[in-house]
Specification:
The protein is mainly alpha-helical and 153 residues long. The chain has one domain (2-149). Helices cover 82% and strands 0% of the residues. The longest helix has 34 residues, at 60-93. The termini are far apart. The model has no long low-confidence stretch (mean pLDDT 88).
Length: 153
């Protein structure tokens, strides 16, 4: 008798949760945002999480995904920007000699990208592979900067 009551109670609670999460738009958007986030579509995850958070500002999952997708989107943007600037630097270094203007441009690019990397704030939930890609780009900029502009003693 006791097992039957517990089983019925668990089923009832499970159905209530399913009903709540299934018909609550905020949690629907949160789950969709979570799936998009784990698939690497950070912009879509951010938009869906924002919708969910706007509907229910107490939705902790929406808040978490919104914050995390912003961090990850900044990292994805860093990678994209770094790749563009690395191509630019490669094009500049293909010349036989680097002009003072070219050196200055490379110095500015490397310093800006090193500083941008330092402002990235990964969390425990940040995709490790995404952050590892950021570190790779950072190391390239650091190496270029150190080789060309290290103080000679």
């Amino acid at each position: 008798m006791f097992k039957t009551i517990v089983t019925i109670l668990i089923l009832f609670i499970g159905l209530m949760l399913l009903f709540f999460f299934g018909f609550n738009d905020s949690y629907k958007y949160s789950w969709e945002a979570r799936m998009k986030y784990f698939m690497g579509d950070y912009a879509a995850a951010r938009e869906l999480a924002k919708k969910a958070f706007d509907i229910d500002p107490y939705n902790k999952m929406a808040f978490s995904i919104l914050a995390q997708s912003k961090i990850s989107a900044r990292m994805a943007d860093y990678i994209q920007e770094a790749d563009k600037y690395l191509r630019d630097i490669e094009n500049l270094t293909q010349k036989e000699t680097l002009s003072t203007a070219d050196k200055l441009k490379i110095k500015m690019i490397t310093e800006v990208m090193i500083e941008k990397f330092n402002k990235l704030n990964p969390t425990v939930l940040t995709d490790k592979e995404l952050y590892a890609e950021c570190i790779k780009r950072y190391k390239k900029f650091k190496t270029i900067h150190d080789r060309l502009f290290a103080q000679k003693e």
